[in-house]
Design brief:
The protein has 19 helices and 13 strands. The chain is an alpha/beta fold. The protein has two domains: about 250 residues, Glycogen Phosphorylase B (Rossmann fold, 3-Layer(aba) Sandwich); about 160 residues, Rossmann fold (3-Layer(aba) Sandwich).
């Protein structure tokens, strides 16, 4: 098969593809990864072959943020206290998702956010897919240039989730609401946007354009949101990019080791961290622990002198670090969250208020595998210190975290699902096959 992966230009979303892409490559399939030019070097660094399409992406400038009221000291004109509430696709309580709520979410995400992420690469993706003729397109759940290119070229197509299936969850609610309305009142922003987009390439809209012909899901099944999609579970295999394991990781820590990382997603979008790093570092200072904090130069400049028990590193592969850790404090990012689950490490989440971070924090807390900060804007060092002490002192958190580790290890690995992908592709592909395995 020829398999084309695609994601908009963010490393974290592209990294989610790498283990599956290499599994397909090792099975003898032709694999390419398409994204904007500013991600090409990062794709090449994984050893995979890159295809640059469209124009470079600047999240803060190319999306809709400039239309929102700026907050104080905000370099991109984004009010971080207002934006998440306006566009919260992460609501998962049925009793709070009214018909108007779901309508508003898709009005914001479809023709605004998803369009902004894909429009700069749409023509390039379609042109390349029509030339290369992939059998299968695997697309990031926020990158709708993927299904459009698949339909334009006759390829089968599947979503690969990076977190909870918020689109599938919200979509099923919205479709149920639309079915109960008079046909003249069935306003569907997602379908309308994708219909005129597909029309530009001579194709008609079908509902699988929104959710894929099937969905590849690395979230543990016990934590996945129930949806009506065809779901293909896959084991989460951490990939942190090209890296070197520092020698100090091999040394057994004399005290409980705690990782602190706030990831890169907020800095890419907003130019700063939402949560107070100062409060987080202060919270760890008086505890008898060893702290490993991933801090770049900009973050370090805001902190002053670090406590004696804090080791600051610009980058360390979490997959190598977390086996030696008793806990991790992070922003709820998908990679940090799933890597901690994969290694059975209890977590404290200070939600970044992006995508599914709040909902993952709630699910983790309910499962007893971690705790969360309720208000990431106003928490104190004392509050966080109490949570961390509780997790370190109560072994039940480690036991529950280990349960997720066992579940992940029992899930089919990327290599194990390759035959299933081959069968699904043969079933769904409408164009002629271009290769024989």
């Amino acid at each position: 098969m020829r398999v084309l992966f695609t994601a908009f230009a963010t490393r974290s979303h592209m990294y989610a593809f790498v283990p599956l892409a290499w599994s397909l490559r090792a099975a003898g399939h032709d694999v390419l990864v398409a994204s904007q030019p500013d991600l090409v070097e990062d794709i090449q660094a994984t050893g995979l072959t890159a295809v640059g399409v469209g124009e470079p992406l600047n999240l803060a400038e190319d999306m809709i943020f400039e239309d929102l009221a700026p907050g104080p000291d905000d370099p991109h004109g984004v009010d971080m206290n207002t934006w998440p509430e306006l566009l919260d696709i992460g609501e998962t309580s049925w009793d709070r998702i009214t018909d108007d709520y779901a309508q508003g979410v898709f009005a914001a995400y479809g023709p605004l956010i998803f369009h902004s992420l894909s429009s700069v690469m749409m023509d390039g993706m379609v042109d390349f897919a029509r030339w290369w003729k992939p059998d299968l397109v695997i697309w990031d759940t926020m990158t709708y240039a993927g299904p459009v290119a698949a339909k334009a070229s006759g390829a089968a197509h599947a979503r690969l989730l990076f977190g909870l299936d918020l689109v599938g969850w919200m979509r099923q609610h919205h479709l149920a609401a639309l079915a109960g309305r008079h046909p003249a009142l069935r306003d569907d922003p997602m379908a309308e946007w994708l219909s005129w987009t597909l029309g530009d390439y001579g194709r008609e809209y079908t509902e699988d354009t929104v959710l894929g012909q099937w969905t590849i899901d690395p979230v543990p099944t016990s934590m996945a949101l129930p949806t009506s999609t065809t779901r293909l579970p896959v084991r989460y295999v951490p990939y942190n990019g090209p890296s070197t394991i520092p020698a100090w990781i091999r040394e057994k820590p004399g005290r409980p080791r705690v990782c602190v990382t706030m990831g890169v997603s907020q800095q890419e979008v907003f130019g700063k961290d939402r949560a107070s790093l100062q409060e987080i570092i202060t919270a760890t200072a008086e505890l008898d622990i060893e702290v490993v904090a991933t801090l770049n130069a900009r973050q370090l400049a805001t902190l002053g002198e670090l406590p004696a028990n804090v080791r600051a590193v610009d980058f360390v592969p979490l997959d190598a670090l977390l086996p030696s850790c008793a806990a991790i404090i992070h922003h709820g990012g998908s990679g940090s969250f799933k890597t901690a689950l994969a290694h059975g490490v209890p977590q404290i989440i200070v939600p970044a208020m992006l995508w599914d971070t709040v909902r993952k924090a709630e699910l983790l807390t309910e499962a007893g595998a971690g705790l969360r900060i309720e208000d990431p804007d106003r928490f104190t060092a004392a509050e966080l210190r109490d949570l961390l002490s509780h997790i370190l002192d109560d072994p039940s958190y480690a036991r529950q975290a280990a349960r997720f580790q066992r579940e992940i290890r029992a899930t089919p690995a990327p290599a194990d699902i390759v035959p299933t992908l081959e069968g699904l592709t043969a079933h769904h592909r409408t164009g002629a096959s271009t290769s024989v395995r």
